[in-house]
Design goal:
58% of the residues lie in helices and 19% in strands. It is α+β, with helices and mostly antiparallel strands. The chain folds into 2 domains: 30-195, no CATH class; 206-258, SH3 type barrels (Roll), CATH 2.30.30. Helix 1 packs parallel to helix 5, helix 1 packs across helix 6 and helix 6 crosses helix 10. Mean pLDDT is 76; it is low at 167-198.
């Protein structure tokens, strides 16, 4: 066999095995890189929205006149550009697994502060407080990545989270700490009891047997009766019945109280 044919065969075989081995590794690295960048952009956007909403809640507590229009003010700074871009890349987005579920819930909660219907300004403020509380609860319970939260947060905001969450420890150890005022990444030692009192306030307001008009997740509005007041890791939820059906709802799903 001529020498040039041997050289050609060796080159072809080498190229073949190089493609078989290198291309899958290259594709794997590219997928991991896209996934990492997608997560970082989502967390960065969520942190920004959280800080803005916490600022609005703090202002409303310090000035009762600022309770009015909290949704409108938050709407001017709320962002979901990274979230929308992530959903346009389903292969990478769905690779987040169960984490994707919690991310969607937190965006939905923040959008509800803007677009939801509320009985009065107090209920609107409690909804905003619950949204802040649930975001912190998800970090404490490791539903969202604590390490990534600290990685994408500015220095002052990392300090804020360390004071509320601690570097280590469970949510029971750190979950009842008072909220610090945060406005444009400036932390002031103003003691707030919002996160600690919101569950107790809801539990005191509603009792078993109360009649309510509630809005279900599909948009349907029904008249329901409270069967139980349940405390979960995500806050107080109301077990209600309507006809032959039952549902477990958040307090801000209530459209009207029927006396």
């Amino acid at each position: 066999m001529p020498e040039w044919i041997k050289t050609l065969v060796i080159a072809l075989v080498s190229s073949f095995f190089a493609v078989i081995l290198v291309e899958p590794v290259k594709a794997f690295i590219q997928r991991r890189t896209r996934r990492r960048e997608l997560r970082r952009s989502l967390y960065h956007e969520m942190i920004r929205n959280y800080s803005e909403l916490l600022g609005q809640v703090t202002i409303a507590h310090n000035n009762s006149e600022m309770k009015r229009g909290i949704g409108e003010r938050f709407a001017t700074v709320f962002k979901k550009f990274s979230f929308e871009l992530a959903r346009r890349d389903p292969a990478t987005y769905y690779s987040l697994g169960h984490e994707m579920h919690w991310i969607e819930l937190r965006y939905a909660d923040m959008e509800h502060v803007i677009n939801g219907k509320f009985i009065d300004e107090e209920q609107h403020l409690r909804s905003a407080e619950s949204t802040v509380h649930l975001f912190l609860a998800n970090i404490k319970d490791r539903k969202l990545s604590r390490s990534l939260i600290f990685s994408v947060s500015p220095t002052r905001l990392r300090t804020h989270f360390r004071e509320l969450l601690g570097r280590r420890g469970s949510s029971k150890e750190h979950g009842d700490n008072s909220i610090k005022c945060l406005r444009k990444f400036e932390i002031t030692p103003v003691t707030m009891k919002a996160c600690r009192l919101v569950k107790a306030a809801i539990a005191r307001k509603y009792k078993v047997g109360d009649h309510l008009q509630v809005k279900l997740s599909g948009g349907r509005i029904v008249q329901a009766t409270i069967k139980a007041v349940v405390e979960t890791t995500e806050g107080v939820r109301l077990q209600v019945s309507f006809g032959d059906e039952t549902a477990r709802i958040y307090e801000w799903k209530i459209v009207e109280e029927i006396r």
